[in-house]
Fold:
Amino acid sequence: MTAMTFAQQPVELPLWPDGAPNSNGLTGGEKEVSPHRLSNVTAPTITVYRAPQPNGMAVIMCPGGGYSRLAMDHEGHDMAPWFCGQGITYVVLKYRMPNGHCEVPLSDAERAIRIVREHAGEWNIHPRKIGIMGASAGGHLASTLATHYSAASRPDFQILLYPVISMTDQLTHLPSRCRMLGENIPEAEKKALSLELHVTEETSSAFIVLAEDDQTVSPLNSLAYYTALLKHGVSAELHIYPQGGHSFGFCDSFIYKNLWTNELSQWLNAL
Structure:
């Protein structure tokens, strides 16, 4: 990342400088389990990339990783030049894993959007043009915020890449559910975080991208969420490509990369 790409060098800010209000029980500090894959995050942060010519919009990205780790490259920092080139302030959220404490990652996402809103004037952002984005399990976190928000943390739009949506037995990604809710889960807890069941007329508009041949997270997750959005009159776009599998993110190897990013650019410009 160079000064020519961004208005200034990216800045990393702690979410909870005085300590988080909750804990997932993990200790020992952050670990890089493979290149650009982080686990055991105990000090969550946001990294802010400010566009040279801001258009007032911001996107907060939640990388995926099955609620066990974070893919910080192709589902995180690698997208910064593209978004900044669109005039959009881009924010990468390094959030804590649930480890059976489902409120922990959601509190990090809520805190991230509050921080961005608090700095809206300083960062040339319109406080009602702040969206949440997520990939895979990060898509579950993003859509959780879009359906379980408080007045101060409601995202103005949502962008979801091959998201985990449901915790039901029929649709869920079992490893993500286990890490989120543990074993022997009561049906009420499954339903509470099955986001297709919590869409309302107030849910923010959505842009959803996935591949038909995804063998990791069933495409039926996205279809269920999209159907719920339409049922409640929420503006939504669903883009399903015939191949690409799971976790393509911003990888050049995904043959539809230019197509989905062009579609996203058009959608964002129309908001």
